[in-house]
């Protein structure tokens, strides 16, 4: 009987095993995850879960009964120590499991502050998994002062939760502006204004120099020489692909675990999907850190294990919730040279990215119609001229028929 082992019980791993069964695979399936919880959604951790608006059970992707009913063996709270690609085995504690196909869905790991600048002090948190959210929940008390290091989406989402719960919030971003790596200045301006209106102190072009404290963090010195008294710190300075296990096994890496368009790694019966995997996209190689990518890529891998010989065609989209604003992003803006902004009301705007005459991506803030139209245009390979997008009288829906 064929045995598929999936390492990583996040969104990609859970999607892969579910797809294998729904596509009729009747062999053995084992899903191994280092966290003790059932596979769960990550996005709500820094939003509704931290706000206390979503309980643990609602985080779970599927109930425990699903795995039993589908004869999927769960090994949760366990880590894989080694992969032997020649013997086709994985070592989990004292057990050795034999696989016919192995799927690496090992996700990503948050970057942490060095211990040399106080990163190992108590009450210095990252925001990546359930344990992180649970560990910091006690600190979210009205009147406390939180320092958030990093002005990307994770940092801004944490700032929004903290401000909503009545904390004093200072956010530092060492780049010239928040969201500089991922968005145009127009999107940065929108979110800077939004956070400022909720009392968040945003300091751009300012980095963290050191954290101080005896056991727990109590203070921070910034790169401009200023000092802050803080009760806790949230670090949101990016993630790195979880590729250490693959590297140790001799699987080729390239900004994560390198796969071909079908999800195969350099070793044919080893596959990869989700945050950890890099894959071909429009003549380049990319790695997408998003829930839709984790699901879609993992499902294609499952189909290919069963012989579908299908290429994964990514349709990048992302979202972020902050206060009463829902940001939806379609496409990838890498290489843009023109930005067009469409204003709605005071709390609504969309930002359109072009490279030459080609539409690359859309950021839509409380503008779901613009998002959906932009997404459909990008997926269809259509690029209405920037002047049309900029014209407030343009019938946006008609652009889809052009």
Write a concise keyword list for the protein shown above.
402 residues; alpha/beta; FAD/NAD(P)-binding domain; Enolase-like, domain 1; 3 domains; five-stranded parallel β-sheet; 11 helices; 26 strands; 24% helix; globular
Q: Summed up, what is this model?
A:
By secondary structure, the protein is α/β, with parallel strands linked by helices. The chain is built from 11 helices and 26 strands.
Describe, in plain words, how this protein is organized in 3D:
The protein is 24% helix and 31% strand. The chain is built from eleven helices and 26 strands. The protein has a five-stranded parallel beta sheet. It has a five-stranded parallel beta sheet with strand order 9-16-10-11-12, with helices on one face. A hairpin with a 2-residue loop joins strand 5 and strand 6. Helix 1 packs parallel to helix 9. The N and C termini lie far apart (53 Å).
